[in-house]
Amino acid sequence: MKKIINAKKRIGEHQLHPESLMMSYGYDSDLSEGAVKPPVFLTSTFSYPTAEAGEEFFHVASGRKPVPEGESAGLIYSRFNQPNVEMVEDRLALLEGSEEAVVCASGMGSITATLLSALRPGDVLMHSSPLYGGTEVMFRNIMTEFGIKLVEFHDGCSEASIMAAVQEAKSLGPIAMIFAESPGNPTNALIDIDLIVKTANLIETEQGKRPVTAIDNTLMGPIFSQVVPRGIDLAVYSLTKYVGGHSDLVAGAVCGNGDTINAVRTIRNCMGLNSDPHTCWMISRSLETLSIRMQREAETGLKIAQWLANNPHMKVKVLHPNLIEDELYQTVYAKQCSGPGSTFSFVLDAPRTDAFKFINALVLFKSAVSLGGTESLVSHPASTTHSGVPEEVRKDVGIEEGLIRLSIGLEHPEDLIADLSNAFKVLVS
User: Fold this and answer.
1) DSSP string of 274-304?
2) 181-214 pLDDT tens trace
């Protein structure tokens, strides 16, 4: 085994903030020729100090022995663990407030590892709706082929809605997982985290085994929302989005505690869903500015949402957390989120052709999928990210033909508003 590198979280009695720990936690420059920033460890395999140490490393890596307290698993092979990956995992766990994190090659890789860690043929997967389009396709088109039964709920803030889904799920088989996206993409629908935990505990009482709870925390976490400390088993991330933050990498992660996250790690390692050293080096760079980027983007996003809600050109419906006029929604929002994030949608009372005309008139906003980068993006979910979702499902969850999603970056808010204003002028001309 090896000692955890630079694991100090305090200076005397002072608890260091996560923003400060993003600069150094998990890295000792003395072990890398004094380099202030960690190098990229481009190696596929690692040597052991002795043959006996190699034997011990494999016992721990396979789960046959626990990791000794205050130590981490020895380095074996880059499909199992690797310095750049471990640094990102250590820092993500700090931000989420979990014991561990497991980095994967993509957000969908992290969702795949999460599902396969807990679901078996005949199990029931309860899930919120809407979900990211790739997740919808994974659930509906792939997991069902492996004998997984799906039951969805549309209102994650309503106990009645969730309990109705529980009753339906119980009639189909054992409920093995509750998976939700909060906020939901692209409508910003919220899930009451406390209600999900309460529901999982109730199911455990009735069926004797607690379903694994998982939340896709990509849109607000880990800065404005941390779900593991609230009792959720697994927080799922597309690191491609805000954590990576520069639209130049693809990666994912799962954060959690104890045996639940260890099961995810086992799937990740066995199936080769790992991220590479260079990508993780880039993520460690991005983590240093994550807090300040997300805060600035959220401030700009709120200004733009407020302008859209009162714009002089045409009336639109704005799906920004601060502007959704629902008392229960606002109660949940205030309880579990410290900020709004900067990805939200607005809805034109118009057909798809008008949405396209508006998007095509934009200059600063780039028409592209993904979100959370330094540049502002615009997309039409019904024709892109959610085009694989059946039309009737899109209608049920509010993904209308006139819905346009914005991801706000670091441009000046006045310039972004001018861009939107000009597009409205083109649309109404």
Assistant:
1) PPPHHHHHHHHHHHTTHHHHHHHHHHHHHHH
2) 999 999 999 999 999 999 999 999 999 999 999 9
